[in-house]
Every structure is written in structure tokens, then in C-alpha cells.
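Could you join me in thinking about how sequence relates to backbone shape in a protein? Would you write everything just below, so we can both look at the same thing?
***
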Amino acid sequence: MSNNNFEQEVSQAKFAGLHIQEGDQLQILVSAFDDIAVRPFNMNTMPRTGNNTNNTSSSASTASTPSEYTVGSDGTIVFPVLGTVYCKGMTKQQLKSDLESRLKRYLTDPLVTITLSNFNISVLGEVKSPGQKTSPTEKINIFQAIALAGDMTYDANRTNVKLIRTSDVSGKDEVVSLDLSEASIVNSPYYYLQQNDILYIEPDRNKQIQVNNDSGTDKWLRYGGIGLGLLTLILTLTRK
């Protein structure tokens, strides 16, 4: 990186959190002091509410297992008792606060835990292992994503990396050019990736020109070889 204040820049990088998108799979667990009162708010234990005591042990075994909700095309999830909850564009912390606020009507000191189970990104172009990558953590920056793809190749253009992200506002894909040679990249709002982001590492322009020239040279060498072979064949036949 060309900026000598890299350490200072990195110390200022801020992670604003993931923004929930359509198709996200959210694992949500509701807990409270009263285990029986909390059962209707978890899909794993909701059907067992009101059953006889023979099911107590099986209910207890699933009480700590999160239920999975898929965010629909309308940006909502259907939550037990609470009904339809709009969450698209929210961070996990915002959704957590919203659910806990709603649950206080029914529970004392409810606690909501949310995990995104399908955090995927794609890294394409001049990397050693391109393709879709699953991150073990939801807080991942550009350099960590490239590391998942085996790092950039020697032919990569580090000054014009393309990031494709779906806008929460318009719903359309936006393309942003990023210069990874500048330490100020850590202050970019695109430094930390969102789920379903696509990174495209372009080949270096000089390398592209060289490859095109080499391919042109190879083509003329092949044609020249074929022509020489035909000429040799003709001379051989005429001598007979």
C-alpha cells in the first residue's frame, strides 16, 4: 500500500453490521426466565405448548435450538405469535431490538439471539481459487475475502477492483471501483462486505496487451508452419 499511515487508517475502520436481504436465512432464538412462557415464540417448541409432561424432556432439548426463518421477497419473516415482521435493510442488532421490544408485551426480560446462516460472497477474476465462498464469520473485509480465494495472482490489477452489490434502496446492482493499493480503502463503506457481494479482480491492462500480442504472434507462427509444410510437400511431389 502506498499510504504510510496504514496502521492509523486501519484503526479507524468501522463495521456497521450486515443489512438483512431478501433470501437471507436467519436463525433466531428467543429465551427468557420462564421456559414455559417462551415456548410459543420458538418454532421448535411452539407445537409442544400445552402438551402433557411426558414431552417435557424433549421440549427442553430443543429449547436452546434456534429456529430458522427465510426473509421473503417482501422483506418480511413470519414470527410465531408476533406475525409478519418487516426486517429487510435492518442490521441484526436493529432486528434484535425490534423483536425484544415486541416480546416485552408477553415476556419478562426477553433475549433474542440472531445468526445469519447463509453468508456467501463471490470472488472472481485474477485470484488463485475463484468462486463462491462461505465465510466463517459475518464480519469480513475485502482482504479477508481475497484470502479465502487464495490471494490475487501476479497478473491482478490491484488499483481497479470491482465490487458488485445490490442496493437496499433501488434493489438494483451497483458497481464500485476500489483501489486496494491505497490504505484509505479501509475507510470506504465497501471495505466490509455484505452477504452476496461479488468481487471481480481485473487482469492488469499491460498483461492483457501482452497476452493479445502473444496470441497474435502464435497465430502467425501456426499459419507460417502450415504454409511451410505445404510448400515442402509441393516441392517433394514436383521432384518426383
About this structure: The mean pLDDT is 83.
